[in-house]
Automatic annotation (TrEMBL):
Pfam families: HD, HD_assoc. This is Deoxyguanosinetriphosphate triphosphohydrolase-like protein. Belongs to the dGTPase family. Type 2 subfamily. The keyword Translocase does not apply. Residues 65-213 form the HD domain. HAMAP family: dGTPase_type2. It comes from Bradyrhizobium lablabi.
Length: 398
C-alpha cells in the first residue's frame, strides 16, 4: 500500500522550474515529463549496449547499463512509494544516473579519466549532467533535455554535497576539485552544491547500491565466477542460503541463486525503509528544504545491514571485478579507448563531421573534451567497430 504524500518529499506543483521556460504539460506533472524525456533520449537508448560488468557479446542474459537502470528504477520506486515520495522524480533520477557512463563500464571511465588527465579528467556523474544539459540535441529551443531544477540537483548531488557553504570542494572532490562540467553549469544555474539532495535522489542512490549487490551476484553466478555455496563465507548470505535449503532441499543451483537474489533485495529494501523511517522520525523535516539542510543523509541502511552490504561489495570486488577473466577483458577494453583517443587527437579528420573542432582551431582542452564527449557516448559495439575501422588489429574482448 502506498504511503500518503509526505510533506518532506518533492512536490511537482512547487518545482523550481526549468532553465528555459516552457508551457506546462496539460497531462503530465513536471517530474513525469522529466522522466519521459530521459526515456526518449538517445543517451538512454545507448545504455542497452554499454557494459555493466560483462561486454555485450559475452551473453544475452548479463546486465547492461540499460537493464541495470531499469532494475534501479524498480527498487527506487518501491522505496519511494513506501515513504510517500514523488515516484516520478525518483524514477527520473534512477533512469538517468548512468547516462554519462562511457563504454566498457568502469574500465572505460578509468581510460577516459587518464586520457583527459591534463584537461580536468573524466567523471561519469559530471558527464551525465553534460548529457542532459548540452549533448542531447532533440529540441528546437535548447540543447539538452531542459529538466527541472530538482532533477538536475538529484543527478549532481545524489551522493551528497559537493562543496561546503564557502564553495570549498568536499568528499571525493576535495583533492581534484569540482568537475568542470558541474562547476560551469552551476555558474549558470545554481544547484546549491553545498546542500544535500532531496529524499527522492537519496532513494535513487541507495537503490543503485541494492541493484548492484544483488544483480552482480546473479551475473557472477551465471558466469561461473563463483558458486552459491561460495557465498556462504558471509554470515548474511550464509543464513539466507541455509533457509532456502531448508525450505527447498532439492532445488538446483540456478534456482537457489535466483531465490537468494530475491531474498537479498527484499532484505536490503526492508532495512532501508526501517532505518529511513527511524531517521525521519528523529529529524522531523517539514519540507524538502529541511531535508536539504539537515546535514546528513536520511535514506540509509541500518548499521548492521550496512556492514553486511559492505561485505557483499568486498566479496564481489575480489571474486568478480578483479577476477582474472574480467580483468583481462577490461584491460583490453581500456586499450581500445586509449587507441581511439590518441587517434582522434592525431587525426581529427577521423571524427564524424559534427564532432570536428570548429574551423580555425580551438584550445587544446576544448579539442580533448570534444573527443572525450564523443567516446563517452559510444556503445561497446560502436567503440569496437570504430577501432576495427581505424586499426589493423582489435582485441576480441572474450
Amino acid at each position: 500500500m502506498a504511503a500518503a504524500r509526505s510533506p518532506y518529499g518533492c512536490d511537482p506543483d512547487r518545482s523550481r522550474g526549468r532553465l528555459f521556460s516552457e508551457p506546462p504539460s496539460r497531462t503530465r506533472s513536471p517530474f513525469r515529463r522529466d522522466c519521459d524525456r530521459v526515456i526518449h533520449s538517445t543517451a538512454f537508448r545507448r545504455l542497452k549496449h554499454k557494459t555493466q560488468v560483462f561486454v555485450f557479446h559475452e551473453g544475452d542474459h548479463y546486465r547492461t547499463r540499460l537493464t541495470h537502470s531499469l532494475e534501479v528504477a524498480q527498487i527506487a520506486r518501491a522505496l519511494a512509494r513506501q515513504l510517500g515520495l514523488d515516484e516520478d522524480l525518483t524514477e527520473t533520477l534512477a533512469l538517468a544516473h548512468d547516462v554519462g557512463h562511457p563504454p566498457f563500464g568502469h574500465a572505460g571511465e578509468r581510460a577516459l579519466d587518464a586520457c583527459l588527465h591534463a584537461h580536468g579528467g573524466f567523471d561519469h556523474n559530471a558527464q551525465t549532467l553534460r548529457v542532459v544539459t548540452a549533448l542531447e540535441h532533440r529540441y528546437p529551443g535548447f540543447d539538452g533535455l531542459n529538466l527541472t531544477w530538482e532533477a538536475l540537483e538529484g543527478i549532481v548531488k545524489h551522493n551528497g554535497p559537493l562543496t561546503a557553504r564557502n564553495g570549498t570542494a568536499v568528499g571525493r572532490y576535495r583533492e581534484h576539485g569540482i568537475p568542470v562540467a558541474i562547476s560551469e553549469y552551476n555558474a549558470t544555474y545554481d544547484l546549491e552544491l553545498w546542500s544535500f539532495a532531496s529524499l527522492e535522489a537519496q532513494v535513487a542512490a541507495i537503490a543503485d547500491d541494492i541493484a548492484y549487490d544483488a544483480h552482480d551476484i546473479d551475473d557472477g553466478l551465471r558466469a561461473g565466477l563463483f558458486s552459491v555455496d561460495d557465498l556462504k563465507v558471509m554470515p548474511l548470505t550464509a543464513e539466507m542460503i541455509a533457509e532456502i535449503d531448508r525450505h527447498y532441499p532439492a532445488l538446483d543451483d540456478n534456482r537457489r541463486g535466483a531465490e537468494l537474489v530475491r531474498e537479498l533485495i527484499s532484505y536490503l529494501i526492508g532495512g532501508v525503509f526501517s532505518e529511513s523511517r527511524r531517521r525521519l522520525e528523529i529529524a522531523r523535516p517539514k519540507s524538502v528544504d529541511d531535508v536539504r539542510n539537515h546535514g546528513e543523509v536520511l535514506i540509509a541502511f541500518p548499521s548492521g545491514v550496512a556492514e553486511a552490504e559492505a561485505e557483499i561489495k568486498s566479496f564481489l570486488k575480489l571474486r568478480m571485478y578483479r577476477h582474472e577473466r574480467v580483468m583481462r577483458v577490461m584491460g583490453e577494453a581500456e586499450a581500445i579507448l586509449f587507441d581511439l583517443f590518441a587517434r582522434y587527437q592525431k587525426t581529427p579528420s577521423d571524427l564524424p563531421a559534427e564532432w570536428l573542432p570548429p574551423a580555425g582551431g580551438t584550445a587544446e582542452t576544448e579539442r580533448a573534451r570534444r573527443i572525450g564527449n564523443f567516446i563517452a557516448g559510444m556503445t561497446d559495439r560502436f567503440a569496437i567497430t570504430e577501432h576495427q575501422r581505424l586499426f589493423d588489429s582489435t582485441p576480441d574482448l572474450r
